[in-house]
Design a protein that fits this description.
The protein is of the alpha+beta class. It is built from 24 helices and 16 strands. Strand 14 (300-306), helix 13 and strand 15 form a beta-alpha-beta unit. The longest helix is centred in the C-terminal third of the chain and has 29 residues, at 533-561. The chain is globular.
């Protein structure tokens, strides 16, 4: 979608979102004084150094240095882009993300989304009204689906015929081009085109905002292929999308686990029986992008496959893809069904309770990995156990550093009959990055420049900008941080209700953003009492004024010495030197 997200919307979004609630939904936090703490989710540690401030709406890890706002946390933890993070937070807050006028943010895909949504409504209407829809309705009823579940998943019907959709939605060249861009028509010959989906049950594939991005169609009768998916388009990449994830989020207030199955009808049939947390990959093996999206929704993923050789091979591929994603707190399990059964047939045969028990009893990733490897070696021999260790080590090396990786190495050591340290070349668990040295308060003041000190104080207390008699001569001072301080002061003055996190987000795409984040995350290095902040802020600005005057005096002296100074500049130099002498006399008398 083209257009920049307005700054005022980001301000309002951060005003509505509580960073403590957001992070606590992913990383359990404990109260620690006025803040909250946890072991850092971005590096391995045993003693909590990850702090979240409700007052500041900011997080900071004193171990590895990770820090940021609610938006930054989603970008880092959920591996989202900036815009996706905004949309995720907006969805939780019940807000629609507005856009400003056109900019360089990329092409506008809204017409494609609108075309696909229109197509979805067309297919739903055909399921109700087309003369041939009886066989489609009969098929759905035979599979045990009610009208409500069909409506929840927006199931439709593409009637027989070559150009039903084209006649409905492709009347102009522009509309025809949109149908091409969304993959809804095919063109076998020049100047000829026809509907891609014909005489099929239609399953709209929706993104996390509920927009239709593609379709899957199941043939009615014995035609081929049995299932047909939309091709890849600018808004649809099958290696990233999951059928049913939007519907699961809509149906469940909180998703405890997600069950990954293989087909559209599996997802819909499970939902019919009350299992609303099933999703399906779209004719592809599970990808890293799929897993990232799944684990953003919940901490437990259960992969469901047929129990035959092909199903177990697919399960092993899913395991290998999952290993790099298995951060502490995440769990992956594997459910293999009886031969000849799929989720659709099995749940209709044995009911929800027994099927859910199968999910609960599914095989943990650790057991599946070691059982599979052990089945391929002779565990009664030393050579067989050595071979197990050699096969397992590269797999365990894919695991992220953390407790789970450590425990998997311990499990391997137990299975081969060795102490963990005897396995050899075992990848060490990553240690936390060393903490920055703690500075005492006097050291902090001495090391901070006046500009850095003023910026830090302004971030700690934006209301300092409302002081009416602040000096402004320092704005002419040419030095690092002056421009940033001037802009911060202007924003805080013009929008006095902004909190620090909102102010910092104004710099998200600017070069100063990393410096601003770092200043804010280390603001505790300036342990000024609350009632002393105004005096220190005034003092920092006054020191900048003095430095500006020294800089100006030096420049004017140089111009006078070269004979380039104007009469006005000579008068200004005299004024500066006179003021400097007065200040020196005052200091002398006070001493």
């Amino acid at each position: 979608m083209a257009g920049k997200i307005p700054a005022h919307f980001i301000d309002e979004l951060l005003n509505r979102v509580d960073i403590v609630d957001l992070i606590n939904s992913r990383v359990p936090l404990k109260k620690a004084g006025k803040d909250y703490q946890a072991c850092c989710p971005f590096h391995n540690e045993k003693t909590p150094s990850f702090t979240v401030s409700r007052e500041k709406q900011f997080y900071h890890c004193f171990g590895c240095g990770a820090h940021g706002t609610a938006i930054g946390f989603l970008m880092e933890y959920d591996n989202l882009g900036f815009v996706d993070s905004i949309e995720e937070l907006a969805g939780k807050a019940g807000l629609e993300v507005p856009r400003e006028g056109r900019d360089d943010s990329g092409p506008d895909y809204r017409p494609l989304y609108d075309t696909l949504d229109q197509a979805a409504r067309f297919y739903q209407w055909q399921l109700r009204k087309h003369p041939d829809a009886g066989k489609a309705v009969g098929y759905l009823k035979q599979r045990g689906l009610t009208g409500q579940i069909s409506a929840d998943f927006a199931i439709g019907y593409a009637p027989p015929g070559w150009d039903n959709l084209i006649r409905q939605m492709g009347r102009s060249d522009q509309e025809l081009e949109l149908l091409r861009g969304t993959g809804m028509i095919s063109e076998p010959e020049v100047d000829k085109c026809y509907d891609r989906f014909r005489d099929r049950i239609m399953f709209p594939i929706r993104n996390h905002r509920g927009q239709t991005i593609a379709f899957g169609g199941r043939i009615l009768g014995d035609g081929k292929p049995k299932y047909l998916n939309s091709p890849e388009t600018p808004v649809f990449h099958k290696g990233r999308e999951l059928y049913g994830l939007y519907e699961a989020r809509k149906a469940l207030r909180k998703i405890e686990r997600l069950l990954v199955v293989e087909g559209y009808m599996d997802v819909v049939a499970l939902a019919q029986f009350g299992i609303r947390y099933a999703v399906a990959t779209l004719g592809t093996a599970t990808t890293t992008e799929h897993l990232e999206r799944l684990f953003r929704s919940c901490a437990e993923i259960v992969f469901c496959f047929d129990g035959d050789r092909a199903g177990r091979d697919a399960g092993w591929k899913a395991l290998e893809t999952s290993l790099p994603q298995m951060r502490d707190g995440r769990e992956a399990r594997f459910l293999f069904l009886p031969d000849g059964e799929d989720p659709d047939t099995l749940i209709r045969k044995e009911g929800r309770e027994r099927f859910e028990q199968r999910i609960i009893d599914s095989t943990p990733l650790s057991s599946f990995l070691f059982d599979k490897l052990e089945s391929e070696v002779d565990m009664a021999s030393l050579g067989g156990r050595a071979r197990l260790a050699e096969q397992a080590k590269p797999l365990l090396g894919k695991l992220p550093s953390g407790l789970f990786r450590e425990m998997m190495h311990q499990r391997l050591a137990q299975r081969v009959g060795l102490e963990p340290g005897q396995l050899g070349n075992r990848a060490a668990v990553e240690s936390p990055r060393p903490r920055p040295p703690v500075r005492n308060s006097s050291g902090a003041r001495q090391m901070l420049s006046p500009a850095r000190r003023a910026i830090t104080l302004l971030l700690l207390r934006p209301e300092l900008a409302r002081i009416t008699d602040l000096p402004y001569e320092w704005r002419a001072f040419r030095a690092p941080g002056i421009s940033l301080l001037s802009q911060l002061l202007e924003i805080a003055q013009n929008q006095p209700n902004l909190r620090t996190a909102q102010i910092i987000e104004r710099w998200r795409d600017k070069p100063e953003y990393p410096h601003l984040e770092k200043i804010w995350s280390t603001a505790t290095e300036l342990p000024t009492p609350e009632d002393g902040m105004e005096m220190e802020f005034r003092g920092a600005l006054q020191r900048l004024v003095e430095q500006q005057r020294e800089q100006e005096t030096t420049q004017l002296l140089e111009r006078v010495s070269t004979g380039d100074a104007s009469e006005q500049e000579k008068q200004r130099l005299g004024q500066l030197l006179s003021e400097k002498q007065k200040i020196a006399d005052l200091h002398k008398r006070s001493d």
